[in-house]
Amino acid sequence: EQLQGRAAFRCTSPDYLPIVGPLADREAFVQVYAALGKDARQVPDITCPWLDGLYVNSGHGSRGLITAPLCAELIAAWLDNEPLPLPRSVAEACHPNRFALRGLIRGGGK
């Protein structure tokens, strides 16, 4: 008797939102925004330390057929300095640095 089976994987994020946008240098990001661990309302006046030219479009899960093309448009808008095809609040909710930022705020800057 021959056994048959199938396995499939979907890439998703802990908050079930896609991960879309430019990536920051993690170590530099933690140093630049460490003050948010003490006061999350603080707005640092230093620009984010981006990894030049590195963008991610992942974590779409079961909705990837719908969200991936729209997120690709979002990345294209960032690259070309064009208006975003989504409200800024949606773009920020999907930004890859959201996890590092939450970690800083919840971890007290550690």
What number is the mean pLDDT?
Answer: 92
Number of helices: 4
The domain tally reads 1
Based on helices, strands and strand pairing, what is the structural class?
Answer: alpha+beta
Largest β-sheet summary: 2 strands, antiparallel
> How big is the Rg?
17 Å
Tell me, what's the shape? globular
SSE string: EHEHHH
The helicity comes to 25-40%
Q: Gap between N and C termini, in Å? A: 56 Å
Strand elements, count? 2
Biggest sheet: strand arrangement: 1-2
Low-confidence stretches: none
- Beta percentage is 5-15%
Walk me through what this model shows.
This protein has 110 residues and is of the alpha+beta class. The chain has one domain (19-107). The chain has four helices and two strands, in the order βαβααα. A two-stranded antiparallel sheet has the order 1-2. The chain starts with 18 loop residues before the first strand and ends with a helix. This is Bifunctional tRNA (Mnm(5)s(2)U34)-methyltransferase/FAD-dependent cmnm(5)s(2)U34 oxidoreductase. One of its GO terms (molecular function) is oxidoreductase activity. One of its GO terms (cellular component) is cytoplasm. Keywords: Cytoplasm, FAD, Flavoprotein, Methyltransferase, Multifunctional enzyme, Oxidoreductase, S-adenosyl-L-methionine, Transferase, tRNA processing.
Annotation keywords:
110 residues; 14% strand; two-stranded antiparallel sheet; alpha+beta; single chain; 2 strands
Topology:
Layout: E1 19-24, H1 26-32, E2 50-58, H2 64-80, H3 88-93, H4 98-107
Antiparallel strand pairs: 1-2
In short:
36% of the residues lie in helices and 14% in strands. It has 110 residues and is α+β, with helices and mostly antiparallel strands.
